[in-house]
Write a structure and sequence with these properties.
The protein has 2 domains: 77 residues; 69 residues, Arc Repressor Mutant, subunit A, CATH 1.10.10. The chain is built from 4 helices and 2 strands. The longest helix is centred in the first third of the chain and has 65 residues. Helix 2 packs across helix 4. With 168 residues, the chain is mainly α. Helix content is 59%, strand content 4%. It has a two-stranded antiparallel ribbon with strand order 1-2.
C-alpha cells in the first residue's frame, strides 16, 4: 500500500502538469487575441484611409470639372444607415440616426433607463423583445453593445454591463 505522502505528491505533480498545460493554452489564446486585434486595427485604418482617399478624389474631380466648365456626376452621400455597416466613432456632430436600426435600438434602451443604470446583455436583449434564454440572441446583443462601447456610443463597465455614455 502506498503512503499518504506518496499519494499527495503524485496528485501535486499531476496538478502542476495540468497548470502548466493551461498556462501554455492561455499564452496561445493571448497571442491569438493580440493578432486578431492587430488585424482589426489594420482593417479599420484601411476603411478610414479608403473613405479619406475617395473623399479627396471626389473633391478633386469637382474642382477640375468646375475649372473646366464641365459638371461631374458625384454620387450623393448615403444619409440612411446601411444594415451591417461599420459603426462610426462617436463625435459631437453625430446623431444616433447614423447607426443601423439594431444599434439605435440598443442605444435607445440604455438611454431610456431610469437613472442611467447599467444593464447586462441579457437584460438589453429582453428589453428589445428578444428571447434572452437563447444564448445566440444574447451574444448578438453583447457583441453589438461592445462595438458601440469601443466606438464611444456606450460605456462598458468592467463587470460587462453597459450604460448610455451620453445623450446623443
Amino acid at each position: 500500500m502506498k503512503s499518504m505522502l506518496g499519494l499527495l505528491l503524485a496528485r501535486e505533480a499531476a496538478a502542476r502538469e495540468r497548470v502548466e498545460v493551461l498556462r501554455k493554452e492561455a499564452a496561445r489564446a493571448v497571442a491569438a487575441l493580440e493578432a486578431g486585434e492587430d488585424e482589426l486595427d489594420r482593417r479599420v485604418i484601411a476603411c478610414e484611409e479608403l473613405v479619406e482617399a475617395l473623399t479627396a478624389s471626389a473633391v478633386e474631380n469637382i474642382a477640375v470639372a468646375e475649372a473646366g466648365g464641365g459638371r461631374v456626376a458625384v454620387p450623393a452621400p448615403v444619409s440612411a444607415p446601411v444594415a451591417g455597416a461599420v459603426v462610426p466613432f462617436w463625435r459631437e456632430d453625430l446623431a444616433v440616426s447614423v447607426l443601423s436600426e439594431d444599434y439605435q435600438r440598443i442605444v435607445r434602451v440604455l438611454q431610456d433607463r431610469p437613472g442611467g443604470e447599467a444593464m447586462r446583455a441579457e437584460d438589453i436583449a429582453a428589453a428589445l423583445g428578444l428571447d434572452a434564454s437563447v444564448p445566440a440572441k444574447v451574444e448578438g446583443v453583447r457583441s453589438k453593445a461592445k462595438r458601440l462601447g469601443e466606438r464611444g456610443w456606450l460605456l462598458q463597465e468592467p463587470s460587462g454591463m453597459f450604460s448610455a455614455r451620453r445623450v446623443v
